[in-house]
What does this fold into?
Amino acid sequence: MITLKNIEKVYQTKTIETVALHNVNLVVPKGEFVSIMGPSGCGKSTLLNIMGLLDAPTNGVVEIAGTPIQKYKDGELAKIRNHKIGFVFQSYHLINDLSVLDNVELPLLYRSSMSAAERRTRALTALEKVGLSARTKHFPSQLSGGQRQRVAIARALIGQPEIILADEPTGNLDSVMGEEIMNILLTLNREDGTTIVMVTHDENMANKTERLIRFFDGQQVADSRVFDFQKV
Amino acid sequence: MIRHLFKLIWNRKKSNFLLIAEIFFCFLVLFGVLSLVMYNIRNYTKPLGFKHDNVWLLTMRPSTDSTAQNRQSLEQVLQRVRAFPEVSQASLISSNAPFAFSQMNNSFSYGKVKDIDADIYEVQDEYKDVMQLQVSQGRWFSAQDNASNYEPIVINRAFQQKLFGQEDAIGKLIQGVDSTTFQVVGITDYFRAGSEYAAEEPASFTRINIQKRPDYFWNELLIRVKPGAGVDFEERMVKEISGIGKDWTLEVATLEKMRQNKAKLTLVPMIALGLVCGFLIFNVALGLFGVLWYNINSRRSEIGLRRALGAASGQIYRQFIGEVLVMATLGLILGVVFAVQLPLLQVFQVESAVYNIAIISAVVIIYLLTVVCAFYPSRQAAAIHPAVALHEE
Ligand SMILES: Nc1ncnc2c1ncn2[C@@H]1O[C@H](COP(=O)(O)OP(=O)(O)OP(=O)(O)O)[C@@H](O)[C@H]1O
Ligand SMILES: [Mg+2]
It folds into this structure.
């Protein structure tokens, strides 16, 4: 599903040059649930941004579903992000001035050929999946952290993407809330076959996924199967 | 997408209120100034009803009061002036020559229509040729009026409509305030002698018959000279007249000069107002630009998010321009609702067309202004790098 070849990412500021990723080679097959761990600043978010086509690597090739993405222009990249990829962020990134329902509908707004009614039904279905049907008219500021993250997940899955990229989705939540979010992601992976790449600092969370990749200083240092992962 | 924009703007109504209010007030000021400008321009493009080029105004002020003597000299002057080959015609007038700063008016009544104010110009029969008036109905003054029982009067169309409406005015008797009865003998379509920028108002001409008033002295003589008559002729003429009216003070002005002076009276305040308005708009533009700039910068993470969810940079650009246009539209709708009251209620005696043009121009200018102000910040928003914007939070 996602293939990274010889990825190099260098941040160039006026004074210093930071190598955020160095020689990363990674294949994430379709339907896999991968977690990525590593100390702060080792390049996990950078990696996710590159996989999510939000950022271009300095060197190397990114392929999504077999197609190298260098060829694509901004508009086409946006279209791939919109149709194939869903993002979940540590800090939720909801728009405070929009209701829960409107926030969830957001990705569908960028699909030209969808009626308002269809957007609405899909948003309601997505909210149902994350157990927030009762909060559609609320605004983000009226929700708890866990509820906000569930809204963000509903938004990520509304477009029925093949890939979900989650950057520390449980980082700001207590363990009970974290469990809940994790269960939603696991269900998505098992029932819909969604490919999920999740960055986490929590070994327990990582152990629930099927594959664990460790990063250190911009480089991949370990890649292992998690034994007790049960694919249903 | 439009619905989405409305929703966003509505949910942010508190912070958008200022922007909408700013556009609203800017529109009202612009509308006011443009109405004034349009009013003046429309008047300017309408016919004056006379031709002022090659017309001079001779003002004569005797220093002694020996009226009989002066009066005799006046008649000699009149004869002498008309005899110059350079002069095509001359007429004594009351002291409200075209473009002069003095006015004379009277109230007239006809039947049930009472006390209509109109300017009165006292003129000799030659005035029609001096000013090249066009009488469209009836006739101008002539010797046959010497025998008339009533004072003959020629009126302009505006006056005719106020006093008579649809009724035919020729031959009708109208009453002045001092119970003089006038008989309408002719109608001119236009006569606006006050200023090129003034609207057509009721005006009338009454006849000077110098034989009837043997002891009266008219101070002003309007002279049409032939093309080419210049300063030398003016000097020669003044010299000769000084020979007749020995102790008189003489002054010659061209109507063209008087027109320019009168025009300044309108143009100078209009230009000043225009400058003030221009400055105001510039300020509003800066304010608008600042607010948009601030808004967009405080929404960087939203922009990053939208990009991550699949918005192309062009869509971000259009969203921000769209938001500004929606807000401008809200401000303008509010403004137009106020502005249309003027033509609807007819608060001032101004044609609706003036207001309509002013409204349309103000709307177009404000839209242009907002688009120009939104252009750069929106471009900036579209250029925001999603990974960077998301990273910032
Ligand atoms: N926009 C940027 N400009 C310059 N340097 C950057 C930028 N983004 C990230 N970096 C640098 O790249 C390196 C990797 O950053 P990244 O955000 O990917 O780390 P991370 O693994 O996600 O850390 P954390 O666990 O704290 O989120 C860091 O050293 C960081 O300083
Ligand atoms: Mg990170």
Remarks:
- Chain B has a mean pLDDT of 91.
- Chain B touches chain A through 27 residues (CB under 8 Å).
- Residues 87-216 of chain B form one domain.
